[in-house]
Amino acid sequence: MEQDASHPPNDYDLSTAISSTSGLRQGLTSYGDAHFSLFLRKVFVKALGYSEDALSRPIIGIINTYSGFNPCHGNVPQLIEAAKRGIQFNGGLAVEFPTISVHESFSHPTSMFLRNLMSMDTEEMIRAQPLDACVMIGGCDKTVPAQLMGGISANKPVLPLITGPMMPGSHRGQRIGACTDCRNNWASFRAGEIDIEEISAINEELAPTIGTCGVMGTASTMACITAALGMMPLRGASAPAVSSARARVAEETGANAIIAARNKWKPQDILSKESFLNAITVLQAIGGSTNAVVHLMAIANRNPKTQGVITLQTFEEVGRKTPLLVDLKPSGDNYMTDFHNAGGMLALLHTLRPLLHLSAKTITGQTLGDILDSSPFREFPLSRRIIRPLSDPLYPGSSLVVLSGNIAPNGAVMKASASKDRALLSHTGPAVVFEDSADLAKRIDDPNLEVTANSVLVLKGIGPIGNPGMPEAGLLPIPRKLASAGVKDILRISDGRMSGTAGGTIILHISPESALPESPFGIVQTGDLITCDVEKRKLSLDISNEELGSRIEARKAVFAREAKPKRRGYRGLYERAVNQAQDGADFDFLAANGGSSN
Ligand code: FES
């Protein structure tokens, strides 16, 4: 056997126990003989050409989520190369490995259905393999939450590296970009305002480069939140996917991984209540996606320190103190490239400084306050147009609100700042109920549908269990007869989610969802009066408690008679284990306490 004299292999000295928790010696495969396990591991890793010197370095994993079905991750190969530079210039050994990759438009029934699976893949592969730290490359909506959830549960040093937003496109001299403009233009097409040639031309320009959606949708929201949690460089939230800045963030992440590995900075030690309060402050200030509420609950519940400490009520409390400052679609007018050029997260956090918990730790070993102190930001006119000062916000407070009432005893969420008709924020109207997505598709454009602009559209059956993955179907289309009469917004309610790029007066995540027999939301009938009062944070069905109770009992009896057989496979696991939106729609057994109610 060839030997490197400078690194004599003592791993096979049978008189010495193998007890290391780092490098190649950690997490040995179980053969009942640790020395043989290490011997065999080295046999196989040497097939890849590694020397003893290389194998003696800190091993930094890089999760490769490149996929031909994920254009939001189209730059992953370049990011891997740049991250490897950062790792290897600083004395580590970079080893890339795959996990599943999930894109919004290529995931049936929904990407959210696969988020928990991706988090399990991420957690178990980080835990199973001999890594001292791990760079997790994600970007598209569900990938970053999945990686944070899995990384926190694995609890080895993890460093998110985000693919970054796409550039905006152009149509007839106007900037357009996925995906707020996808939805606006599609609504115009449905209303007959633009023709088939124009919608086809728009389709060519909405995603002109690789990268994540270029507005403050879920992907951009999660990127900003990840930076606010202290888990990645601030520029990493907004540098465009195709920019040289993005590659430099990747190199910096690789270098940071070596420091985190040497210091064993684990996510459960870094992330505290204060980290999450900062993240929620940023979420409110950027007018972020409602999906982020579900994701942040799932992420917080993976950490024993924050499970049960961060709740839906926390979003409400932070929201009341935090104005909307960032003028990006869908709440405002601009794109992620504008946010980046205006100073991005560094400018935003300097602006939000009085509202932040500056002692929160970050993955660099510095506190958030240290980072802001060492990176002063000088304002310029563009920055103040895109990132407003606290004294001149875009929306005074609570971009995202948490509502509750007799049909949502465990809560519901609304992005009030994205309402297109603010009068609907205080509204009473008769319900027009659709029992599920198929019922909606069949009847929404029926000319005989009894609906007016005063109606409240209700869609059931799209909660975590009801339509696995809680699809982004909460943006119910405006019935064609109303749309062509010029109605731009209508109050809509569901137990599902909505794309972060969408807007309108829309109440989401109703809990408990209608698929549960005891759900009060499940008993809403067409013609019932529903009141939404955002000021009072109330959502209620105007019927008596007795009527509500007797409808629920009658519905439970129907469920008992029509019990469905258990499904097999991942879908069966999903239906049995997923928890409700207010807990993050995670699997109960993956939460920090394993789903125990104690
Ligand atoms: Fe991937 Fe929008 S589809 S971020």
TrEMBL record:
Domain (Dihydroxy-acid/6-phosphogluconate dehydratase N-terminal) ranges: 57-370
Domain of life per record: Eukaryota
InterPro entries given in the database record: Dihydro-acid_dehy_C, DiOHA_6PGluconate_deHydtase_CS, ILV_EDD_C, ILV_EDD_N, IlvD/EDD_N, Sugar_Degrad_Dehydratases
Domain Dihydroxy-acid/6-phosphogluconate dehydratase C-terminal residues, every copy: 386-585
Record PROSITE patterns: ILVD_EDD_1
Presence of keyword Plastid: no
Keywords assigned: Iron, Iron-sulfur, Lyase, Metal-binding
Keyword Iron: yes
PANTHER family on file: HYPOTHETICAL DIHYDROXY-ACID DEHYDRATASE (EUROFUNG)-RELATED, HYPOTHETICAL DIHYDROXYACID DEHYDRATASE (EUROFUNG)-RELATED
Family: Belongs to the IlvD/Edd family.
Full protein name: Dihydroxy-acid/6-phosphogluconate dehydratase
Lineage of the organism: Eukaryota, Fungi, Dikarya, Ascomycota, Pezizomycotina
